[in-house]
Design a protein that fits this description.
With about 325 residues, the protein is an alpha/beta fold. About 40% of the residues lie in helices and about 20% in strands.
């Protein structure tokens, strides 16, 4: 498992060390947009402002078995905090891993992308086509299946040829090489794929929660073990406060946002202004546009809709386990 650790700089010579702040070990995928917010927290000292210290690890995006790399790190006790979707949190909890959603990340959903001229113009054209996904137990795939069932009355899993890549970046490459007819891509990768003019986005999956009755509720969260919530609730609350500060800064300051994107290793975006603009529009919509408020009931109904239309296999569970969401977590829209 590829791992990069980003730690705070050592104190300058002649400066008396302070009492060590509480440390939160967090792991995120090195290709994910979560890194932009974490780099902003570190660069602007937003963790120190709220009395804690962020220790950040960056992992690969490869899925191994039932776990993403960050989920495996949390399950093994290597880190304290990750980000993942509400279905994965609920599935882990139902399987005995006491995961809890402590702060919303946003409506982090991808898009259905296909080659221009391939004959795929809408969901009804997906029958008998090769559809690429990272894995079948994926929130994007579950929502797409539910949408196909609701709009056209068929289960996409049974009606299409499903190709699992096990990696977001591998899936992008499979689409570019023509190994699949369409792919459910991670949202951050879509603007660059579309820039060539060879592909088109058939559906932005961020539209689906509203269509399925959840009114654009956040679908992804920062998550930790129950024990961290009960034993160190102030640390969790301090993280949520720093996160809100970082998102507000990136929302209001386009230059700070671009600096975070480039600093995270996405320097290629700077050479394509149209890609940068599209990327920022998608980010603002997902992270800053889900409306705030406590939406746990909406997410429970959304899971119920998926299960009712596609069966429990679509999500890997039938219902949300109690305790999936931390009480009084940072639900507010930054």
């Amino acid at each position: 498992m590829s791992r990069t650790v980003l730690s705070a700089a050592p104190p300058r010579a002649g400066v008396a060390p302070r009492t060590p702040a509480a440390t939160l070990r967090a792991a995120f995928e090195n290709t994910g947009s979560t890194r932009w917010m974490m780099q902003t927290i570190k660069h602007h000292g937003l963790d120190a402002r709220h009395g804690w210290r962020l220790e950040l690890e960056l992992l690969g995006d490869r899925v191994r078995g039932a776990w993403q790399s960050t989920e495996a790190a949390l399950a093994q006790g290597l880190v304290d905090l990750i980000d993942t979707d509400w279905i994965s949190i609920a599935r882990a909890r139902a399987g005995g891993l006491p995961l809890c959603a402590v702060a919303p990340y946003g409506t982090i959903l991808g898009g259905l992308v296909a080659a221009r001229g391939c004959g795929i113009c809408g969901l009804d054209d997906l029958r008998r086509r090769r559809i690429g996904v990272v894995r079948r137990l994926d929130k994007n795939w579950a929502l797409l299946r539910a949408a196909c069932a609701g709009r056209h009355g068929f289960d996409l899993q049974a009606s299409a040829i499903v190709v699992e890549s096990g990696s977001k970046t591998q899936l992008r490459d499979d689409l570019r090489r023509g190994l699949v007819d369409a792919a459910v891509l991670h949202w951050q990768l879509i603007p660059q794929v579309l820039a060539s003019g060879e592909f088109t986005e058939i559906l932005d999956l961020a539209d689906l929660p509203t269509e399925l009755g959840a009114d654009r509720a956040p679908t992804s969260f920062f998550a930790c073990h129950d024990s961290l919530c009960t034993e160190r609730p102030r640390l969790v609350q301090a993280f949520a406060a720093s996160l809100a500060d970082a998102v507000a800064l990136l929302r209001d300051d386009a230059d700070a946002w671009l600096a975070a994107v480039i600093g995270a290793g996405a320097a290629g975006h700077a050479a394509a202004p149209q890609v940068v603009r599209a990327l920022r529009r998608k980010w603002l919509r997902r992270v800053c546009g889900w409306g705030g408020g406590n939406r746990a009931a909406d997410l429970e109904r959304l899971l119920e809709t998926i299960v009712a239309r596609c069966g429990a296999d679509a999500a890997g569970l039938e219902r949300m386990p109690p305790g999936t969401f931390m009480r009084d977590c940072g639900w507010r829209n930054p």
